[in-house]
Write a structure and sequence with these properties.
Strand order of the largest sheet: 11-12-7-13
Distance between the termini: 63 Å
Shape: elongated
Structural class: alpha+beta
Oligomer: single chain
Largest sheet: 4 strands, antiparallel
Radius of gyration: 22 Å
Strand content: 35-45%
Order of helices and strands: EEEEEEHEEEEEEHE
CATH architecture of the largest domain: Alpha-Beta Complex
CATH superfamily of the largest domain: Ribosomal protein L6
CATH topology of the largest domain: Outer Surface Protein A, domain 3
């Protein structure tokens, strides 16, 4: 049995769970997530215990893969509703900086023009320092996608490390030109 798929998903207090027509709907206040579930996977919601359990119909490779996948997706929805997700980016380099103006992220990245990024609806971007960007939201996939998009404007280069990088990312440095003899 799948080690991930057999783990129960705890439902935080105040979260409403409904399963109809192979679609799992999770909501809390104004936030709402929907996840279609493959018919090979059975969802059992125990309201009294506050857990969701996933079981699979058979032991085919496809069914085993879906078992862990849907459990992880639903777990991410629960964490997103209760605590949310965040991703930190760091800008490295002289003259490279960021600032928020009227819900727009203005990036000065050494190009001849400023890059203006308008975040999606459910994403909050905080610029604590001109070289630090924090992306917050309730959807794990969307937070990661926005962080990757901002990083793609100027990925870190391997010689001096200039560019936008994830805070935990380690940029492998290359040696520059060797001194001539």
């Amino acid at each position: 049995m799948s080690r991930i798929g057999k783990l129960p998903v705890n439902v935080p207090a105040g979260v409403d769970v409904q399963f109809k027509n192979n679609t799992l709907t999770v909501s809390q206040g104004k936030r709402k997530f929907e996840q279609p579930i493959d018919p090979l996977i059975t969802v059992d919601y125990d309201k009294a215990a506050g857990v969701i359990q996933f079981t699979r119909a058979n032991d085919t490779k496809q069914c085993k893969m879906l078992h862990g996948l849907y459990r992880s997706l639903v777990h991410n929805m629960m964490v997103g509703l209760s605590t949310g997700y965040s991703r930190e980016l760091e800008i490295v380099g002289v003259g490279l900086r960021a600032e928020m103006k009227e819900n727009q992220l203005n990036l000065q990245l050494g190009y001849s023009h400023a890059i203006v990024f308008i975040p999606p609806e459910n994403i909050q971007i905080v610029v604590e320092k001109p070289t630090s960007i924090v992306i917050k939201g309730h959807d794990k996939q969307l937070v990661g996608q926005v962080a990757a998009k901002i990083r793609s404007f100027r990925p870190p280069e391997p010689y001096k490390g200039k560019g936008i990088k994830y805070i935990e990312e380690v940029v492998r440095r290359k040696a520059g030109k060797a001194a001539g003899k």
